[in-house]
Amino acid sequence: xxxxxxxxxxxxxxxxxxxxxxxxxxxxxxxxxxxxxxxxxxxxxxxxxxxxxxxxxxxxxxxxxxxxxxxxxxxxxxxxxxxxxxxxxxxxxxxxxxxxxxxxxxxxxxxxxxxxxxxxxxxxxxxxxxxxxxxxxxxxxxxxxxxxxxxxxxxxxxxxxxxxxxxxxxxxxxxxxxxxxxxxxxxxxxxxxxxxxxxxxxxxxxxxxxxxxxxxxxxxxxxxxxxxxxxxxxxxxxxxxxxxxxxxxxxxxxxxxxxxxxxxxxxxxxxxxxxxxxxxxxxxxxxxxxxxxxxxxxxxxxxxxxxxxxxxxxxxxxxxxxxxxxxxxxxxxxxxxxxxxxxxxxxxxxxxxxxxxxxxxxxxxxxxxxxxxxxxxxxxxxxxxxxxxxxxxxxxxxxxxxxxxxxxxxxxxxxxxxxxxxxxxxxxxxxxxxxxxxxxxxxxxxxxxxxxxxxxxxxxxxxxxxxxxxxxxxxxxxxxxxxxxxxxxxxxxxxxxxxxxxxxxxxxxxxxxxxxxxxxxxxxxxxxxxxxxxxxxxxxxxxxxxxxxxxxxxxxxxxxxxxxxxxxxxxxxxxxxxxxxxxxxxxxxxxxxxxxxxxxxxxxxxxxxxxxxxxxxxxxxxxxxxxxxxxxxxxxxxxxxxxxxxxxxxxxxxxxxxxxxxxxxxxxxxxxxxxxxxxx
Length: 680
Ligand code: AMP
Ligand code: ZN
Known about the structure:
The protein has 680 residues and is α+β, with helices and mostly antiparallel strands. Bound molecules: adenosine monophosphate and zinc ion.
């Protein structure tokens, strides 16, 4: 007998029956028969392990070996979603989106499943690996655990590359049952689902009744430009697509087509959306799994591309969340903060209160206008919200205090230096450059993780050094003799050694960090990276350009607008800022950029000269694309010339595209670029 052939045919049979049973709920053979086939395969795999594939149905059983979850890059965008909490707000978002995209766009409304996010990557018809969302750029490889989920197809009838986004979840009653049988209780179904993906041993995951719904497909062959068609195709390929789906569009033809694709779908004009949201919210308990909202998505991929994304979320989708996490508490006091640029921010000091699992003691009040709008004063009972991951905010006054009538007023002068505050726009400012608070904050900013990342100079240590008069300005960080700290309370020898080492290490931080740390307004990490990627890879080049006093030089870089360009000019022409740069140069900091932003991946782009234009979904900021090219040995230049070999063109490409077409260099779109990176 040809065992290899027999094994291959068992694999095919078993996968088909798993699909029939777990996805279509239409079993064709009795369980006992299925078990017999599986036993036979297990036996053969034991005898001929060399023939056992990564996607054998035996993988559903899991393994006893420890998982390691290596990180891998995502090759499709895995952004999070912008959120709204009121049906009316969503109605306005629909109008705005229609206005931007043109009337007649279609909106799909899906359930927002409250589980764990997963991205499945297929190639040549096989599941290659499955990644968690991670930070959106890198995810953890949890393939072996995911392979135990019967509803996840291990093989599909699609040979070109495909990535599928979905949510792994657990039904409420399954959760109760599972939880009653384990010693360590899980808080809710979502935690159990997420935890199961990270089990060290996949045999444990195999025991958890996990389900999946998929909701986005990225086909390398771009077989369709329509979300509904993609969902339909995913379904044909054996994925579970949530049938509870709405479609809203003012174009009757498109509605009919949606009903044809998804018989039973509720299709209606856009005006009916708000009512639909209310109805779904009211009936959320009727579905057997947890949903925390609905997701509204533009269905036309061309429109999606046109609308683009922000750094965090697509502009073509919006989550409507059923409830925003809120809590009631007392406003104890208002603290006045003065930032390094002099801006005054009032901060609410609250009686500690728990919101969605964490304790909140402070919330921003933005400015006097915001306080006036709330009619807020110390002693008031307020409602606090936490929307998404943003800083908590005071939403409204629930009960006015008896003792403190009236509205809280910002002081007339800076609480740190007594300089009179100046109002500009909605904010008040302390304009005193020598204000001690502004200087202390500038030191903190310089040392913070996003900038120079001098971990040993945290806010507390800085405050101490500052109060002593030892470190008053940024250059002092590099000239102060930290040996003087010996004998001060809280500064043992070991700590002093660590501080010195931290300061020393900061001298080798790349230019991109130094540039951000200099504190030019509008120039944080992303803009700094953009500048460097576009030839401003040396501080002297930036200073020279600023001297020309022509903001268009900087604004020519996409991602930098007129405002930031003007801020750059003003910052890098001020004598005090130039003095700071000089003394930091003397201290040994890096003021010249490195060509490659880190480790080389390979040299597949060697000899190529790339130009980048337009904006990108995944490479945002664009410096990410430049880094990807350079890490493969390619060069990135600013302008198209006869030497240019490749133009990477995003949406809204500039005049560079026409020029590139004229000289006839290769024009690469974002998805081809991703494919190039992934394939090499
Ligand atoms: P958030 O993490 O709150 O920004 O919301 C985005 C997450 O919602 C995604 O990463 C998915 O894990 C999850 N999600 C659940 N259902 C859907 C859906 N139908 N479409 C998009 N995202 C969904
Ligand atoms: Zn001040």
